[in-house]
Write a structure and sequence with these properties.
single chain, alpha/beta, Rossmann fold, 15% strand, binds thiamine diphosphate
């Protein structure tokens, strides 16, 4: 008999992911994932994507390769991850141990009206990630699993992939700054310090 557990709440999940974040650098996918990361507390070490759908994991890959001593976390939606699925292959080929990609999987394109994604039709991102050579636990469905994931993210023994099953409820938007040039400069300064 299949037991249908309640799905996780995205805000609670992201707040747990970012609690006691230490040195973590965060890249958030466009739309809801960015609002979740902002809701957990603005931080100069957050790089919010306001567009570039499909680009979150690739952006985090570049950052992880450039900053190999720091843990890097991509947080994004299943729609964004599906669009950028090829970047999982590049992550598998480059194998940055400090990179974690976390998908908040509500099986819909929430931002644009909750159209079902390919996940709703049976596509399995965990198997895709494993096939690309990433470490990937089974779909995460409870907060204990999120806690274990946080420990793994901070161990930097990846590359790590995790798919977290969340409910499709929309939350009030928490909008961080929208000026991309300013966000880039702020992030750069937080990571590299002020230019001489
Ligand atoms: C190339 C491109 N196609 C479509 C869009 C429109 N769009 C913006 S957010 C979004 C849905 C994102 O879905 P998902 O990543 O699953 O996040 P959710 O809001 O469901 O958490 C779409 C289709 C876009 N911004 N760019």
């Amino acid at each position: 008999m299949t037991v249908n557990l309640p799905l996780l709440d995205r805000r609670e999940t992201v707040a747990r992911l970012l609690r006691d974040r230490g040195e973590l650098l965060v890249v958030s996918g466009l739309g809801s994932a960015t609002y979740d990361v902002a809701a957990a507390g603005d931080d100069p070490r957050n790089f919010y994507l306001w567009g570039a759908m499909g680009g979150t994991a690739a952006m985090a890959l570049g950052l992880a390769l450039a900053q190999p001593e720091r843990p890097v976390l991509a947080v994004t939606g299943d729609g964004d991850m599906l669009m950028g699925m090829g970047s999982l292959a590049t992550i598998g080929a480059k194998r940055p141990s400090n990179l974690s990609v976390v998908v908040l999987d509500n099986e819909v394109y929430g931002e644009t009206g909750a159209q079902p994604t390919a996940i709703a039709h049976g596509v399995d991102l965990v198997r895709v990630a494993r096939g690309c050579g990433l470490e990937a636990p089974d779909d995460i469905r409870d907060m204990n699993g999120v806690g274990t994931l946080v420990e793994r993210i901070h161990r930097s023994d990846g590359p790590l992939f995790a798919n977290i099953k969340i409910d499709a409820r929309e939350h009030a938007r928490v909008l961080p700054a929208r000026d991309g040039a300013w966000l880039r400069s702020r992030f750069r300064e937080a990571v590299l310090g002020l230019a001489p």
